[in-house]
Design the sequence.
């Protein structure tokens, strides 16, 4: 997707502070952190949003959870972090390439 911000980050056309990368998954710090630790984990495959996840993507989306949890531990928040997916503009989704937010470092961060 030429017009997708996160596809441009994957392609290296826009810089990001990368925390993890393999052939399927990329993780990088959120540019406007909402918690002391706030990073995004995305599939390199362009999937628009959680509602757009197909059966063939189920394993890939599960991998985001595993990799994100590993990074959370490396970032020192493995004992308490929140995972958020926004689906659709009404829910606050601004970038239409599925992304898992991981936020940590705040005690009992509910509501945000
Ligand atoms: P959402 O509102 O769920 O679509 O989240 C999009 C997230 O992407 C927001 O938390 C933004 O701060 C973050 N973001 C936007 N542009 C960048 C960027 N260039 N690098 C890192 N994070 C970004």
Sequence:
């Amino acid at each position: 997707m030429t017009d997708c911000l996160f596809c441009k980050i994957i392609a290296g056309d826009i810089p990001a502070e990368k925390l993890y990368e393999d052939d399927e998954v990329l993780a990088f710090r959120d540019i406007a952190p909402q918690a002391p630790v706030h990073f995004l984990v995305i599939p390199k495959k362009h999937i628009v949003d959680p509602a757009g996840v197909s059966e063939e993507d189920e394993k890939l989306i599960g991998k985001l959870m595993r990799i994100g949890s590993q990074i959370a531990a490396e970032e020192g928040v493995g004992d308490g972090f929140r995972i958020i997916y926004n689906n659709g503009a009404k829910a606050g989704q601004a970038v239409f390439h599925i992304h898992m937010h991981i936020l940590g470092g705040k005690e009992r961060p509910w509501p945000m």
Observations:
- The helical segments are 5-11, 58-74.
- The first helix runs from residue 5 to 11.
